[in-house]
Design a protein that fits this description.
- This protein has two domains: about 60 residues, Multidrug-efflux Transporter Regulator, Chain: A, Domain 2; about 50 residues.
- Strands 1-3-2 form a three-stranded antiparallel sheet.
- It has about 120 residues and is mainly alpha-helical.
- It is built from five helices and three strands; from the N terminus they run βααββααα.
- It is elongated and about 55 Å long.
Length: about 120
C-alpha cells in the first residue's frame, strides 16, 4: 500500500521541508508520480528510522549517510543469513551435522589469537 507525502509527514510528525531534504539527499527513495511522492511501507519505516536517529540520537547530516549505509549493510547481512539458514534446513541430516562440525572448527580457528580484535 502506498501513502502520500502528506500522510507520512502527518504520521511521523516531521516537517515537509525536512522530508523533502531527506528525499533530495537520497536517504529515502519514494516513487514520484505526477509531481507527488508515494511511499511504501519500507519507505515509511525508513523515514521513521531517520526521524528517530535525528531526534532521539542526535545524528547530524554529515553522519547520517554513514549510519544509513551501515544499517543497510546490517539488514542485507540479516537477509543473506536468513537465506543461508533456510538452505541449511533443507540439507540432509548428515550434511547438516558435517556443516555444524566444520562451522565449529572454523569458529574456534577464527577465535584463536583474535581476542579483542574488531577488524582484520
Amino acid at each position: 500500500m502506498l501513502v502520500t507525502f502528506e500522510d507520512v509527514v502527518s504520521e511521523i510528525e516531521i516537517g515537509g521541508s525536512e522530508l523533502t531534504i531527506w528525499i533530495e539527499q537520497n536517504w529515502v527513495l519514494p516513487v514520484e508520480k505526477e509531481g507527488t511522492y508515494f511511499f511504501d511501507t519500507t519507505d515509511v519505516a525508513r523515514v521513521r528510522l531517520i526521524a528517530e536517529l535525528r531526534r532521539d540520537m542526535g545524528v547530524n547530516e554529515e553522519a547520517m549517510p554513514v549510519v544509513l549505509r551501515l544499517l543497510d549493510q546490517v539488514y542485507s547481512l540479516r537477509h543473506a543469513l536468513a537465506g543461508l539458514t533456510a538452505a541449511i534446513k533443507n540439507l540432509p541430516e548428515d550434511a547438516r551435522g558435517q556443516l555444524e562440525t566444520e562451522l565449529r572448527k572454523a569458529g574456534e580457528a577464527a577465535g584463536a589469537g583474535d581476542e579483542g580484535q574488531v577488524m582484520d
